[in-house]
User: What shape does this take?
Amino acid sequence: MKVEKITLRHIKMPMKAPFSTSFGTVDEKELLLIEAKDESGITGWGETVAFVAPWYTEETLKTTWHMLKDFLIPILLNKEIGHPDEVTTLFASIRRNCMAKASIEGAIWDIYSQQTKQSLARALGGQKTCIEVGVSVGIQATIAQLIEVIKSHLEKGYKRVKVKIKPGYDVEVVRAIRAELPNLPLMVDANSAYTLNDIAILQQLDDYNLLMIEQPLAPDDIVDHATLQKNIKTPICLDESITSYEDARKAIELGSCGVINIKIGRVGGLTEAKRIHDLCKENQIPVWCGGMLEAGIGRAHNIALTSLSHFVLPGDTAGSSHYWYEDIINPEVIVKDGYIDVPQEIGIGYTPNMAVIDKLTISKEVYQ
Ligand code: OSB
Ligand code: MG
Assistant: This one.
């Protein structure tokens, strides 16, 4: 394939509820949609996951735009591409900027799956026909409110619940949830809010039968996480710290984690995500698919990835209606009894809803 035309749209979506972590709150989501058209007229879609501010990783909506416009799009336009894996090689001279790379690489995978007349899930090697999903609950104003929110999600069938923690909002929160919901599959995510000085607090969490504790320490650390893992029983799940296959290999070698959360944007694309999945499978490190409050295109890519066999734990890809009044795809992503059906149609299996996309578009640029 040769990509002849790329349209970038900057869209802004109102969220049903603000989402708060230890470092940031998102109350409306801004993102870039990448629409790439090849010489035969096939169109593939991608979505950026970077937030407006760099609180999760260093990338922002504007840095992804800059990278796409000034580096990544010029590299790809009119280049003959045999397989999406080649995109990673074409981008090898560009350091990091994983979310920018992943957004356009996802559009190439979409084109490739249509060109080869298979679902994106199948093109990636995924076999599952449905995936198990959990839900991530942001920091709430009170513990009582948090428990209410959790219960409402359980009624909808979600298979596990993740709650955000930060210093001062941790052991007490988990104790209160456990008192009400002793058998709930529960985990916590700190988004790097702790240091090794907090070992005593993190050890207290061992008493509450948590599935895992996600990213307790610094986003660029795997050494202190290895020390922490030796001192706590609960498995550590790395999120921010894993930005590549190499990061994952080293973290596994050091014993920095028992679980890895794979996010397509954080690791630079589906090809790298699949390599990390395969590595974890060989090393018996369970993986699950993380979320970045994606709109429909990103959500569709997550679902396809999660169809790979070693995504053995429920992910954070909740249904469209959990986040959005109106998603940008047709049909929307539906969760039934805690499961999402993996589309079997050619491509991502959802159609971009142009009426909604046009309504949400702030600006648009075409490159050809
Ligand atoms: O750390 O997994 C995270 C949302 C934004 C940024 C980082 C994270 C999250 C979530 C929510 O936990 C995942 C989702 O529902 O998409
Ligand atoms: Mg996380």
About this structure: The chain has 14 helices and 15 strands. The first strand starts at residue 3 and ends at 20. The pocket of 2-succinylbenzoate (ligand 1) is lined by residues 56, 136, 189, 191, 239, 290-293, 316, 318 (CB under 6 Å).
